[in-house]
Amino acid sequence: MQDVFIKDIEKYIGQEVRLKGWVRNIRHSGKLLFIILRDGTGEVQTVAFQPDLGEEAFETAKHLTLESSVIICGIPKPHPKQEGVFELQVTKIEPIQIADEYPIGKKEHGPDFLLSNRHLWIRSQKQWAVLRIRHTVYYAICNYLNEHNFIRFDSPILTPNACEGTTTLFELEYFDEGKAYLSQSGQLYLETGIMSFGRVYDFGPVFRAERSKTRKHLTEFWMMDAEAAFVEHEENMQIQEELIRYVIRTVLAQCALELQILERNTEALKSADATFKRMTHYEAVELLRQKGSDITHSKDLGAQDEVLLTEDSAVPVFVERWPKEIKAFYMKRDPLNPNLVLGDDLIAPEGFGELIGGSQREDNYELLLSRMQAEKMPLEDYQWFLDLRKYGSVPHSGFGIGLERLVTWLSGTPHIRETIPFPRMIYRIYP
RNA sequence: UCCGGAAUAGCUCAGCGGUAGAGCGGGUGGCUGUUAACCACUAGGUCGGGGGUUCGAACCCCUCUUCCGGAGCCA
Hints:
This protein has 431 residues and is of the alpha+beta class. The protein has two domains: 2-97, CATH 2.40.50.140; 118-419, Bira Bifunctional Protein, Domain 2 (BirA Bifunctional Protein, domain 2, 2-Layer Sandwich). The chain has helices at 50-53, 55-62, 111-116, 118-121, 125-147, 187-197, 233-254, 256-261, 266-272, 281-290, 303-310, 365-374, 383-387, 403-411; strands at 2-3, 17-29, 32-38, 43-49, 69-78, 86-97, 151-152, 158-159, 171-173, 179-182, 199-207, 220-229, 277-280, 317-323, 333-334, 337-348, 353-360, 396-402. The mean pLDDT is 91. It binds one RNA strand of 75 nucleotides through strand 2, strand 3, strand 4, helix 3 and strand 12.
């Protein structure tokens, strides 16, 4: 008898097969027993009839509990009531382990309880769907970059100092070398890579010890940083746009079932795959003030501003050319206006907020040095970074994507904590 | 860190000054097509901790703890 995955079951109509999985739900009605079985690839209703199974086996099967592991043999056939759906006519049920009373019931639960049971919650249908979309987004990003001459160049997680001095870092003792920190971005290291490979990216966990407590923040999240030599501001935004649109198309093509389970509005996603809007920070502020925001030209966008800015837009919006005071030291000065830098933020529509932060980098040694001095950065820790401007400096640009932010938007998940297997937040480290 | 809110059965919640409740989940029984199945019976509680007001507190007040939502910061 052949072992098959549930997703392939319709290829075996009328032929006895063996499924291995877990009991999602169980019901019985006299001599009939319905077990909803899931195996990681999908789920299927199995139907057992007492005379087919024998009285003893039937009684045993009736006492299977939610999430018990089980091997079920049977014959796939069309569902008598549902068009295009298949079920399994059971010939044999072999329990592997009878599960204890399962904590996650069939009615709704609160977030605290679910997060405390995250190790079990991931079995639920919606969590399964979100995490499969995460998998698809991850590979889509890598595929795009691999096909566009980017080389994977992993940056270190243990670092001697901050990449951007403003945010809080997780600190630890590093033998006799003093303090070390968990990386909050691999970007500066990536800039070394482009001088060897031209285009590079990294993809891994980064850490922010900010006491952020919103639906958009995790203390540990996965970030893809890309960096490219000889790419200037305009081309940088083109790459970001192409990449995001490629990811949208891939998710729509490969995750139809997952999006359906999550009740994601796929029309909104389809219409986001069109030319992105662009505006300068100055233009964005003008527009926002018309809409009633109290933002000024020297301020960063607030959460409400990001919503206002995209409320009439089906596509993501680039905000570019920012005041240098509110952006990082490494961003290149705008040749048209020395008070601005060539940075861009990409804001997703539907109120989801920032997806990408990118910029052309300052490639002039003197300008970079003076900017670092102005920010009172410890220059001795950054000699290697400054060296890049002394040995064959070139114009270059890069950007970073928060994987979970992107997955949150694409999947339509209300909170970022569901888009990573084990979320780390300021009040939660278990499980 | 700041501003709101919540904590009652394993879970989700109702009860808001006078004997602690429901649905789900568990157990037992019934039913040959169920779809978060249904029906009957059944077990299950120091009402988050501490203090106070009151004849009487799950309920009112103070305090602590834990969590949730939002802001700022950012991806």
